[in-house]
Amino acid sequence: MEALEQAAAAKTPLLRVQSEGSGGLLLTFEAGCVRIAVDSTGSSVVVEVADEERRPVADLAEEEPWWRLLGVPLCGAQRLENEESPGVALQFRDPADAQRVVEIRSEGGRLAAELRREASPAR
Predict the structure, then answer these.
(1) Helix, strand, coil share of the chain (percent; to 5)
(2) To pair with 69 at 20 to 30 A between CA atoms, which of 35, 43, 98, 100?
(3) 81-86, long-range: CB within 8 Å, 24+ apart, which pairs?
(4) 22-43: b or e for each residue (b if 16 or more CB lie within 10 Å)?
(5) Is residue 94 part of a domain?
(6) Contact at 8 Å (CB) between 93 and 75?
């Protein structure tokens, strides 16, 4: 989580999203690349700095919800503690802007990403 928190503190934009052979996600920010994956037991989500040996399988730039978020700054990250589907929530854009929150959860031992909400700017 530390890598995501650092990217959020720097408000660095999301540059690339790729999947890897093991079902994980590689999120590339200006500050570096973060790997999100389901652990070997399928019971939690692991967030770590991606090493250079990770080989992406597919570019997800045109997939939902990622196409909406490329180039948008990451402003927050938090772990979602839920026994049935643990994960992480990523907040893109400041709350004063049209905020977008994506939840990445473990569902049946695989990752699922969903745009949780698009909030209008506060007036």
Answers:
(1) 10, 50, 40
(2) 43
(3) 86/43, 86/44, 86/45
(4) eebbbbbbebebbbbbbeeeee
(5) yes
(6) yes
Under 8 Å between Cβ of 55 and 64: no
In terms of Cβ atoms closer than 10 Å to its own Cβ (0-12, 13-18, 19+), residue 45 is buried
95: Cβ contacts below 8 Å, ≥ 6 apart: 75, 119, 122
- For residue range 28-75, what is the model confidence (pLDDT) as tens digits? 998 889 999 998 887 789 999 987 677 788 999 999 999 999 999 999
**Would you tell me how many other CB atoms lie within 10 Å of the CB of residue 49?**
12
- Give dist(CA 104, CA 53) in Å, integer: 23
Residue 101 domain boundaries: 2-118
pTM of the model: 0.86
Residue 35 lies in a domain: yes
Does some domain include residue 123?
A: no
- Our count of domains for the chain comes to 1
